[in-house]
Design brief:
By secondary structure, the protein is of the alpha/beta class. The chain has a single domain (4-133), classed as Transcription Regulator spoIIAA (2-Layer Sandwich), CATH 3.30.750. The protein is 43% helix and 28% strand. It contains 3 helices and 6 strands. The chain has helices at 35-60, 77-95, 111-122, and strands at residues 4-6, 14-18, 23-30, 66-75, 100-106, 129-133. The protein has a 6-stranded mixed sheet with strand order 1-2-3-4-5-6, covered by helices on one side. It is globular and about 45 Å long.
Length: 134
């Protein structure tokens, strides 16, 4: 499966989902002009990736854990809904038995970012988020 690479802009985060290197990251600021247009391709990629995981697990076994890193400096309320959708998709993968993990990075001076991650975490059934202070 091809990597999903979206370069950052002044308004949107960098997205690097590279399954060949087992590197999955969203970083920067998320306040795109058209949030739906930005995040829908990410959600579609995750759906396709789950199909790949299903095939790989069937043929080769579970494999290494997939760790999705969220290194956001800021996100607006519209982005929050889509970030939650991304986390819900990852939670669905975890519920389906895939070894999916999430890391939520936050600046130690940014209590709001930490609290946002904690609020997201409360809504997930299986996916556990590791909080990392930087």
């Amino acid at each position: 499966m091809n990597a999903l690479i979206i370069d950052p802009s002044d308004f949107s985060p960098k997205v690097l989902f590279d399954p060949t290197k087992n590197h999955f990251e969203i970083s920067g600021e998320s306040r795109p002009e058209n949030t739906n247009k930005f995040y829908v391709p990410i959600l579609q990629w995750l759906e396709q990736y789950q199909n790949v995981l299903y095939w790989e697990k069937d043929k080769f076994g579970q494999g290494a854990a997939r760790i999705f890193e969220f290194k956001l400096d800021y996100f607006n309320s519209t982005s929050a809904k889509y970030i939650m959708d991304v986390l819900m998709q990852l939670d669905k993968m975890a519920q389906d038995g895939y070894d999916i993990k999430a890391k939520w990075y936050f600046d130690k001076r940014d209590e709001d970012m930490k609290e946002s991650g904690e609020e997201f975490s409360k809504l997930l059934k299986k996916l556990k988020i590791e909080f990392i202070e930087v």
